[in-house]
């Protein structure tokens, strides 16, 4: 560093002198270069001000407007002396850069989670995104992506600041013409607004950037208001004070399994590319379970999340509260609101266990869920390969559940929450079913994993993603129902549902948030308790089967199976 600081004062003046000499020697080229840079700076600034925040809106027509923010910025810079102008221009450009970054985050979040980026709540999800990339494409790719993202943010902000400073200086050098141009542009903008002129369905007079800032501000304000309102809502509980002896009386003596199937959404049953294989599997498995003495009823739930953040769907279904963001999740899991799983433990009539192959770090929420024990990714004895994000195939997780919990002799029935992960994006490689007797420690899946598709071959191809997503759902549903067929008893009750729809690349933009939900049992009285629900017979819900908000499931289930409401207030 000392050597560098000694050399720089000598090198920099010579470099600048050479640049000036080159410019003087080639004035036409220098003038063309300067004008090109001016045009690029204007295109960058205007493009950023007109930039939409969703992928479907990224089309040429959206960039044909006149941004009011550019006119106001030009007028402001023209009114300032040199030094304040440079400072204001740099800050204005940096602000445009930050807004561009937020628009890009919105695009990504809408694409994957079906909602925009929340500047209060969502920074932690960026760590999850890096972990997902690491699991799907390797640690090197994840590190490179993280470093690249940081550099891109810094570059966008810096380039926008430099562009606005350059344009500000250009306006000052041609103040008279720039003033006339700004007044003309302002007049045209007002006229287009008054006449409602549009190009390709998009208003010519744009205030897109101001609208984006307003939208982000409203999200922040609404988030802060929602936090207090939801905390009050979570303290009120319809069944919070119900005595243990008045909970779930009609399921006493039953082993109850509540299974979440990752990304099992309505698109799996209705998308023309995906549905044929999935519906055929559901019908085949309905028939197989029927031969084993089981019957099923199925309906729809509208999930609180979309494309990811599975824990929001799990907590919504089991708590009876609408948990659609991380703040709500933190609020409810830090309290004592009664979950469906905790209701089983509260009775004292069931052992409660969680089978969580996707959990790979401390999980304090287990107590809130009311689980006596949790078998995480390291507690199921798996020694085989990972399948992208999924730590182990669902078939193995279910066999381990049977070996470690369900198949053990016990003094009282078992209630288990099982989270299956093989249908987690990016859906490559997808496991194959093997003979249940050959599962062992999971090493049998080495060859299956090596023969499967690579994540990089699927992740950027929408059609390939849809096909492999369908395969993963078929695998997960088949694994779960084969487990029931193989190990279930007359007293086994299986409840399984999706946590959310797959990402927009698979489900499509504007897709519903509906997920299938199914109850399976041998005892006809178990399904008789839900006759009034009007659910469809079998594992495949009809298109017009009832659709409920996922947050209503807990109370409906508790009520159907003999629980008596005894509310708590705030």
Question: If you had to describe this structure to a student in words, what would you say it looks like?
Answer:
- The longest helix is centred in the first third of the chain and has 35 residues, at 139-173.
- The chain folds into 2 domains: 13-222, no CATH class; 254-536 and 545-560, Alkaline Phosphatase, subunit A.
- The chain has helices at residues 2-25, 27-50, 68-78, 82-113, 123-137, 139-173, 175-195, 208-235, 267-270, 275-291, 310-319, 326-333, 340-347, 365-369, 394-406, 445-451, 455-458, 462-487, 504-507, 524-528, 553-560, and strands at residues 66-67, 198-199, 202-203, 205-206, 255-261, 295-302, 351-355, 373-375, 414-420, 492-498, 514-521, 536-537, 547-549.
- α5 crosses α6 (139-173), α6 (139-173) crosses α7 and α15 (394-406) runs parallel beside α18.
- The strands form 3 sheets. Strands 5, 6, 7, 8, 9, 10, 11, 12 and 13 form a 9-stranded mixed β-sheet that branches.
- The mean pLDDT is 86.
- The protein contains 21 helices and 13 strands.
- With 570 residues, the chain is α/β, with parallel strands linked by helices.
- The N and C termini lie far apart (63 Å).
- The chain crosses the membrane at residues 32-51, 63-80, 87-110, 141-165.
- This is CDP-alcohol phosphatidyltransferase.
